Amino acid sequence: ISDQKPLGCWSVKHGQILTCPVVCNFETHEYIAVHDDKVLRIWKNEDINLDKAFKATLSADVYRIHSLPQGGPVVLFRGGAARTLDVLLEAPQQEIENLISAEVIRWSGAFMEGQQPVLIFTTEKDRDFFVYVQKPKLGSLHKYKLGQQESAKPLCFTAHMTNQTVTLLCLYSNASVYQVLIPLQQDTEEEEEEEKEEILSKSLLLNLSVSGTVLKGTSLVVLDKDYVAVLGSLAAPGNKPKEYLTIWNTKFQTLQTSKELPLGTSGQLWCYEEKFFLIHGKVLTVIMYKCETSSLAAAVGKLKDSQTLDVSSFVNWNTLGDEEPVVSFQSQESVALKAESRMNLRTRSSTVGEQSGTLSVGRLLLKLKNASTFVLETELRQLMAKAPTPDLQATIGCVVTAVLDRCKTNPKYYPQHFLQEIVETRDLSYSLCPDLMAVALEKKDMHLLQICLERFPDIPEEITYACLKAFLSMSEDHLESIDINLDSAICYVDVEFNDMEVKTEILENGFSAEMDQDMCDTKIPKESWSDGESCPVGLRKAALLNAVLHSAYTETFLLPHLKNLPAQQAILFLRYLYYLYVKCSEKVNTTLPGVRSPTINQIMDWMCLLLDAQFTVMAMLPEAKDLVSNLHKFVRAQVRFYSELNKMEGSLRELQRLNLLRESQTYSIEVLEII
C-alpha cells in the first residue's frame, strides 16, 4: 500500500466467478479463493496461473472463508455448517449438513477463544434475525433470536470478543447502534440435546444524530472498546445528502471526529491493523489511526464542537482534500495510497500539545505563501532541518507540496536546484509528492525526472510512460545543454557514432557473424549489424532511458500505455534495447560497466514488453522488420551456443570430479578428449 504498487494479479477463466472474498492463510502464506460457489483454489505468491493452482470441488456452497492468525482458515457454508480447512481438504466431497433450513446468512465473523476458533454469523428469515455461535473443532452450535425493533431492521453487523463474551453491534435503519452481549457457553450433553431458542436482549449504544440531523449509516466497524467508525450519509433539510466517515465515542455518546467524502463511496468500510480502507470516488483510500484511552475531558471538549460535522481538531485529514490528485481505477487499476493520516484519540491536554506541533507546519507554510523566493527556500530548509523524526517524511511532503503550489500559481517560478536537492538528499516517494513529476514533465526538467525515476519506488506506470515518451522525443541538441547524470551510460556508450572498432575473432558469449550465417539460409548483410554495434541515441538520452529501465512497474498496467507510443519512438527505443543486449552479450558475466547500468534482466523484460505492445508496428514497418529480424538471428545464435554448452556440461562436471580425486603432487600434462 505504501508504494502504491500491485504485487500480484490472478484471474479465473472466462465464465467463472469469484463468489467470496479471497483470504490469506497466515500459517502457510497461501491464498484461498472460492469460485462458482463450490470450487476451492489454493495458491502461493509465486504461482502465476490460477488455473494450475490446487483445486478441490466441494459438496456444498461456500458463504465465506475466515482466516485466523493462529487458528487457521475456517470455511462457513451457506447452510450454516463450518469446517476447518484441514478437515475439509482431507475429504473435499464429505457431506455438509444444512443447519439453518430456509434462513439466509447476512453476516459472519470469526475469533479465537484460547486455541479454539469461534464463528459467529447472523441470518434472516421472514424479517426475523437469528444469531449463531459455532465452534467448528468442537462441533458445537448455539442459536439465538435477535429481539425485534419496531419500524427498524438491522443494516449491518460487527462484533468483538473480550473475556469469554461476544459483543455484537448492530446498525439499524433508524440511525441507531445497538449492543448485544453473548456469553460463550460451555457445551454439555444436556445442552446439546436441548434445542431451545434463546431471545437476545439488546441495549441502545449510540444515536447517530448531530444537531437533529440523522446520519444514515451503511457500514460499521469497531476500533476498540470505546470507539466505533460509521460510514454513512447526512441529509440536511433541503440539501443533497453528503457522505461522511465518522468516529464515535461509545463510552460518552459523543461524535469524536468526522470528514466529508465528496467523491462518494461504495458504502463499505474496512478496518485492519489500525488502518481504514474505503473506496472514495475511484480510489482506494487508506487512513491510519491510533486509538488511546478515552477520557471524560476529551469527550466533553469534543462535544462542544460536535454541533456541526466539520473537520475535527483530533485528526489531520489534509490528505483527503478535494484537490488531491486521484488515480482512476479505469486508467490504472492499481491500489493507490491516497491518505495516510494519524488519528490520535487522547485526553484533552495531550491533544492540545499535539495540535500546536501539527499546526505549526501548516501555519508556517500559510505564512510563507506570499514570501519572496529566497525567504521561502530559506525557511523551508530550516523547517526540514528541525522536523522531528516521526514526522520528517510528512513534513518534507508538505514542503514539496508548498513549493509546487507556488509553481502552479506563478509559472515563472521554478526552483529547479532546490527540488533536486530535496529529492537527492531525502527519502521521498511518489505518494508523498504526487505533483512533483507532473510539474517536472511540464517544465521539461529531465534531470529531476531522472533522479525521481532512480529513487522513487512507487511511480505509477502512466508517469513512467510519460517520462519515456518525453525522453525519446527530446532532441539530442537540446539534451546537450542539460545537466544529466551520465554515470549509468558513459562507460559503454560509443561517443563517436561512426568510429567503430573492428570486432576481434574472440568469441566470449556465443556470438559471431559467421556462426549466425551458418544457421541461416540467407547471409546477414554486414551493414545490418552496425545497428546493433553503434548506439542509436546520444550519451545523455541513453542515461535518461537507463533511468526508465530501472523504474519499478507492473506489466499489466504498463502495457496499455506502451501501445500508444509513436511508431518511430518505439523503433528507436527497441534499437537502443537491442544495442544494450548486444553489449551485455559481449561480456562473459553479461554485466554492463558503470553505476546503475541496466541489467540483462531489465533489458530483456523491457524488450519483450515493447514487442508485445508494438507487435503490429514491428511487423508492418520496413525499418522495424529488419531490426526485429536481426534481433531474432542474434537470439537464435545465443540459444545455439548455450545449447552446445549444455551438451558439454556433463563432461565438464566429470572433469571437475576427476581433478578433485587426483593427487597433483608431481608436474604432468594430460590431454582429455571430450566426445
From TrEMBL:
UniProt gene name: Nol11
Q: What is this protein called?
A: NOL11 protein
Highest taxon listed in the record's lineage: Eukaryota
Note the InterPro entries from the entry: NOL11, Nol11_C, NOL11_N
Instruction: Give its localization.
Output: Nucleus, Nucleolus
Q: Which organism is it from?
A: Vidua macroura (Pin-tailed whydah)
User: The Nucleolar protein 11 C-terminal domain covers which part of the protein?
Assistant: 372-673
Q: What Gene Ontology terms describe what this protein does at the molecular function level?
A: RNA binding
Entry GO terms, CC: nucleolus
Q: Name one Pfam family in it.
A: Nol11_C
